[in-house]
Amino acid sequence: MIAGPRGNMGREAVKLVQREENMQLTGVIDYKFGGMTMQETETMEPLQIPVYETLDEAAENKPDVLIDLTNPETGKKHLRRALELGIRPVVGTTGFTDDDINVLSELAEEKELGAVIAPNFAIGAILLMKLSVMAAKYMPNVEIIEQHHDRKLDAPSGTAMKTAQMISAVRPAGSQGHPDEEEAWQGARGADYEGMKVHSVRLPGRVAHQEVIFGGEGQTLTIRHDSLNRASFMPGVKMAVEHVTVSAGLVYGLENLID
């Protein structure tokens, strides 16, 4: 079951499930077109697949997995409700707090169901995070620049926040730049996370891009990842779906599924 089938990510997820031999699309969830088929909406893939208005209605079709590619508010509600209904959720939205994750982890363990929350499904972006952690042990002066399309609602991106959090686990907190520096324009130095600066760019023509820049004595190191289209996220969606069907408990971040 896919929630958010009209979005760019949702459309790619529909194509993914359709082409995978071990997956079957049992329906989609869309609040505007409940009671129709995807083909009848004329805004989705031309498939004779039912559209449900709510997750509770969709649950009657007994899906094994819910792929939610909606928005943070809906994603939170769907993840909790999916677990309550015995459905394994794969959620690709951000905005989950530590308290949210703790509560949902307990629920997943109680229900003995697998669940995944992924701020980013791109395998390359996950490798960027892991390589950044490795580099930060030796080059603790670091700044993050993330670029996305101008329709993105949150800033910094979930990927940038996750990257900073992972780096902070191996980097002592501390400010960077001149101790007396001043911003002539507020925000010029970006957001601050334990002394690391995080910068967000929003422009048409962008998809999802991030670079992590490390500075050291006489040298710099830049690790960069670019998603050029939404198809780049589908191998990670597939990995998450396969994981939740054979596991129990909540995983936050695909980096926990990659050695």
TrEMBL record:
The gene is dapB. This is 4-hydroxy-tetrahydrodipicolinate reductase. The keyword Amino-acid biosynthesis applies. It comes from Alkalicoccus luteus. NADP(+) binds at residue 32. Keywords: Amino-acid biosynthesis, Cytoplasm, Diaminopimelate biosynthesis, Lysine biosynthesis, NAD, NADP, Oxidoreductase. One of its GO terms (molecular function) is NADP binding. GO terms for cellular component: cytosol. The keyword Amino-acid biosynthesis applies.
